[in-house]
Amino acid sequence: MAWKDSYDIGVEKIDCQHRQLLAKLNEFFEACSNQQGKEKIEETLKFLKEYTIEHFSNEEQLMEEINFPELAEHRQTHADFVKAVLELEETVKTKGVSVLSTIKLNRTLTDWLINHINKCDKLIGQCMATRDKAI
């Protein structure tokens, strides 16, 4: 999956983190297409746990600073994503890596990129642009 400029929200720190996530997703997708998804899943889950702590904190702080109107809902989507990652990690720990867990992570990450970053996070950039014009 290639990064598109349309994914940028206009905040370099956040956009850089999003590009970092896409790069990691591409590593995972490539491993899956080479039948190595099982080997890569634990590394990807570890990355996601670390990434979400820093990235979601940065994003939520920015939303507070700009009085983002949908902050509570956005926080909830972050919490839901973390929960999904932790549940998947627990499944891998207790049941081992399976084709199903690999597919589930692949689907979760693709959905996050397409629906969350490209739709929900774009609203943050739009809110900032509107606020900047008003100043």
From TrEMBL:
InterPro entries: Haemerythrin_Fe_BS (IPR016131), Hemerythrin (IPR050669), Hemerythrin-like (IPR012312), Hemerythrin-like_sf (IPR035938), Hemerythrin_metal-bd (IPR012827). Residues 10-123 form the Hemerythrin-like domain. Pfam families: Hemerythrin (PF01814). GO terms for molecular function: metal ion binding. The keyword Iron applies. Transmembrane segments: none annotated. The keyword Metal-binding applies. SUPFAM superfamilies: Hemerythrin-like. Keywords: Iron, Metal-binding. Belongs to the hemerythrin family. This is Hemerythrin. It comes from Paenibacillus odorifer. The lineage of its organism: Bacteria, Bacillati, Bacillota, Bacilli, Bacillales.
